[in-house]
Amino acid sequence: MNNEDNGSSAVEELLKDDNINEVSKGSQVKKQAINKEYVNKLEEERIFLFKTVKRLEEETNVLRALFNKSHNELEELKKPSLLIADVVSVHGDNAIIKLNNGNKFYSYMNSDTRKNIATGDSVLVDQKSLNIIDKIEVTDSFEVEKYVIVDKPTETWSEVGGLKETINELKEVIEMPLLNPELFEKVGITPPKGVLLYGPPGTGKTLLAKAVANSTHATFIEVVGSELVQKFIGEGAKLVKEMFRLARRKAPAVIFIDEIDSLAARRMETGTSGEREVSRTFMQLLAELDGFESLGNIKVIAATNRIDILDPAIIRPGRLDRLIHVDLPEEEGRLEILKVHTRKMNLKRVKLKEISHQMDDFSGAEIRAVCTEAGYFAIREEREYVKQSDFLDAIEKVRIDEEEDQVHIFG
Question: Which of 305, 325, 345 corresponds to the end of one domain?
């Protein structure tokens, strides 16, 4: 019995040991799994912290760059402004400079700056000491370009209708001297410098000037006379001078001064300060037209509706030599203008001769307005073509609008 009991107890001990070993193995596996999961979490946390630090470093670099840029800009803004002066002459390490107000100074410049400075250069100078800091390249631009229109016109003589005699005169005075100057040299005469186009509004004076500029391949410089009249003393005269300098640089050129009566009205002995400034600007214009410096291949065309108020000095020979009257077109001229403006219109059973007969005392601008209004009548009726009745209705509309304007102006 004792032996059996001892045997069974031994077996139980062995089983117990096996269970303990299995439990310990299971706990080790579980512990290893827990450790692996913990390591994975730490790795994920490390990666997250690494990315966060990297992002913060990038943001720090961006902020540092923005700070440095703002700091540098602020430091630049704190610096005093520099003056622009012209170098009159150079004397070793010194130079005589001239400011815009006309004052001259004997200024110092360092040896590095001295190598690049020559007479006639533009330089930057300190406000207090007026010593030369550096050379500056000033663009070769003109202030007058803000007030004028400079372009190459595309208008041709074929777009000008009903002004045959006027066109022939312009060709003789403007086109021929620019295209064939040798003819005048052989004959031994000097061609006219300019032309004055005068007549009612809307008769095609601007169109004529653009067409002659196109036919001569010249630069077209257009300016309104009132734009040359400035507020401060001397500014208007300066603009006139710069306008002719610009024309010489872009020659051959045609200068077209519209509404010249606002600048060249008859001068009076007494007047306000504003009228005196207008007179100064006008005298500069006279000096440019008939001064010491030749105009060469520059032609001047002026236009006005009020030739009766112009100063005689502007229309005397040697300045605006030729006076060309641009009057309202006759019936034949109206028909030519009508053909020009209806060239691209889709017409259906339209008799242009009858329509031109109805437009008595109409200017070229009013004829163009009639064509436009006729097109609107067709559009309102959802048609793709214009018929005779559209033109007749347009004529009445333009005539009524003109009469209403006259009543409004004259009471």
Answer: 325
Amino acid making up residue 32: Q
Q: How many CB atoms lie within 10 A of CB 323?
A: 14
Nearest residue to 370 (alpha-carbon basis) of 342, 343, 330, 346: 342
Summarised one tens digit per residue, pLDDT across range 157-212 is: 888 877 888 888 888 888 888 888 888 888 888 888 889 999 888 888 888 888 88
Measure CA 80 to chain center: 31
**Where residue 99 sits, what CATH number does that domain have?**
2.40.50.140
If one counts every other C-beta atom within 10 angstroms of the C-beta of residue 347, the result is: 16
Separation between Cα atoms, residue 66 and residue 61, nearest integer Å:
9
Dihedral over alpha carbons 140, 142, 146, 147 (to 10 degrees): -150
Assessment of whether the complete model's pTM goes beyond 0.85? no
CA angle 236, 238, 239 (to 5 degrees): 65
pLDDT at residue 411 tops 50: no
Q: What are 219's two structure tokens?
A: 């630069």
Both 52 and 96 in one domain: the answer is no
Among 35-39, 114-118, 337-341, top mean pLDDT goes to 337-341
Span 338-366, pLDDT tens digits? 888 888 888 888 888 888 888 888 888 88
> Could you tell me if 197 and 205 are in contact, meaning their C-beta atoms sit under 8 angstroms apart?
yes
Q: CA-to-CA distance for 299 and 207, rounded, in angstroms?
A: 16
Domain of residue 396 covers: 331-410
Residues 178 and 302 in one domain: yes
> Which pLDDT tens digit goes with each residue over 270-324?
566 667 778 888 888 888 888 766 777 888 899 998 888 888 888 888 788 889 8
Structure tokens at 241: 């001078």
Query: How many folded domains does the chain comprise?
Result: 4
The b/e string for 99-124 (b: 16+ C-beta within 10 A; e otherwise) is eeeeeeeebebeeebeeebeeebebe
Examine the domain organization and report whether 65 and 87 are in the same domain.
Answer: no
CATH of the domain at 366: 1.10.8.60
CB neighbours (10 Å) of residue 279?
17
